[in-house]
Amino acid sequence: MTQSDAYLSRFMALHPKKIDLSLERIEALLAKLGHPERKVPPVIHVAGTNGKGSTIAFMRAALEAAGYGVHVYTSPHLVHFHERIRLAAPKGVSGGGRLVDEDRLVEAFEACEKVNDGAPITFFEITTAAAFKLFADNPADVLLLEVGLGGRMDTTNVIDRPLVSVIASISQDHADFLGTDIAGIAREKAGILKPGSPGVIYPQIDEVRAVIEAVAAKVGAPLIIGGQDFDVHEENGRLVYQDESGLLDLPLPRLSGRHQHRNAGLAIAALRSQSLFHMKDAHFEKAMQTVEWPARLQRINQGAIPALLPAGSEIWLDGGHNVDGGRVLAEALAELEERRPRPLVLVTGMLTTKDSDGFLHNFSGLAREVHTVPIEHSSAARSPEEVALAARHAGLAARPHASLEEALRAIASEAFTVAPRVVLTGSLYLAGEVLAFNGTAPK
């Protein structure tokens, strides 16, 4: 166990609930720390159900291509907690930002633990306070800040005047905290909108859009709306973006799937909505070619997993875990099937807090079979037998396994006339275990 792991274990014991949406505790802790959230670089704040991390990844790639120093805060992590906090490279150091190192992370944890003095506070709250301290103590030009859950009462929503507020795709997820009413969910997400700061929103269904527009009008946030004020589409193997400032003709994004085209468009719109950072067409072009975001239709070409599967297998990892995430993943896989037909095999593990039936129904008629596996490091994991039953309810052949390795060996033992397309999906927690098993943790 590392020193930071020891702090994280202690932080888990400070509150009986893993999630308790409130701003009181984080505001009190930040005050004791001297309000680091008021000393961070200009903030682009990003909420939404799906696509938040990908949108941030596109913005980071474009800003770094323009030479700016970028801090990034995202969650959850996949393998190591350090993935949540990326610090801008010091001035004069080439290359983009790096994940926070152990020493600086421990120093921030120590400061937070000391001033908190054992008071009740959630894991996400105290670790977010540590992140704000790190972002305040290390210089950068901009901070890309991802909402943890919801928006209005999310721990990150202590920024009074963001440079831009961004709302990615909204659908149902985290029903135990946000409910199942899509209008209510949209209202929570729109809670990051602030007076005078532009709000840039993904193309939403009418009901969601109407709620966001009402919240924006109430707080005085000008809106830039996807599908109305900007648009993006594929044309002749290129990504075409257009808004009132003109048209961009860009390479297709390095991240796979048409949904990533829309996330790229959202990122471009967000950066073009502000005037603090000067963005050229070339910066967006480079971003499309260099963007990275692990476990979102990530191709796995090396490591322990390819060595276990049949030679020539096409292997993908995707952390999709809700119904809408399953839909966009299935659409991307259907496109792959049209271009390069292969037997599709899913390796899936899911949490009890997710709609496994709804998620897996997206793959009915597309996947040949589903191999279900446990998620070893989550107390909320469904058993492989439960997930296999959900797959069968969706009309899919399914086999439960005691471990990821057992599932991979079972696939390897099957007779395929064409090497399969194997997709590991269903949970970001499973994605983390896959990357750890494969020996390719994010860096």
UniProtKB/TrEMBL annotation:
InterPro entries: Folylpolyglutamate_synth, Folylpolyglutamate_synth_CS, Mur-like_cat_sf, Mur_ligase_C, Mur_ligase_C_dom_sf, Mur_ligase_cen. Residues 46-270 form the Mur ligase central domain. Its EC number is 6.3.2.12, 6.3.2.17. Pathway: Cofactor biosynthesis; tetrahydrofolate biosynthesis; 7,8-dihydrofolate from 2-amino-4-hydroxy-6-hydroxymethyl-7,8-dihydropteridine diphosphate and 4-aminobenzoate: step 2/2; Cofactor biosynthesis; tetrahydrofolylpolyglutamate biosynthesis. The keyword Nucleus does not apply. Residues 314-427 form the Mur ligase C-terminal domain. Keywords: ATP-binding, Folate biosynthesis, Ligase, Magnesium, Metal-binding, Nucleotide-binding. Signal peptide: none annotated. It is an enzyme of class 6 (ligase). Gene3D superfamilies: Mur ligase, C-terminal domain, Mur-like, catalytic domain. It catalyses: (6S)-5,6,7,8-tetrahydrofolyl-(gamma-L-Glu)(n) + L-glutamate + ATP = (6S)-5,6,7,8-tetrahydrofolyl-(gamma-L-Glu)(n+1) + ADP + phosphate + H(+); (6R)-5,10-methylenetetrahydrofolyl-(gamma-L-Glu)(n) + L-glutamate + ATP = (6R)-5,10-methylenetetrahydrofolyl-(gamma-L-Glu)(n+1) + ADP + phosphate + H(+); 7,8-dihydropteroate + L-glutamate + ATP = 7,8-dihydrofolate + ADP + phosphate + H(+); 10-formyltetrahydrofolyl-(gamma-L-Glu)(n) + L-glutamate + ATP = 10-formyltetrahydrofolyl-(gamma-L-Glu)(n+1) + ADP + phosphate + H(+). Functions in two distinct reactions of the de novo folate biosynthetic pathway. Catalyzes the addition of a glutamate residue to dihydropteroate (7,8-dihydropteroate or H2Pte) to form dihydrofolate (7,8-dihydrofolate monoglutamate or H2Pte-Glu). Also catalyzes successive additions of L-glutamate to tetrahydrofolate or 10-formyltetrahydrofolate or 5,10-methylenetetrahydrofolate, leading to folylpolyglutamate derivatives. Belongs to the folylpolyglutamate synthase family. This is Dihydrofolate synthase/folylpolyglutamate synthase. It comes from Labrys miyagiensis. The gene is folC.
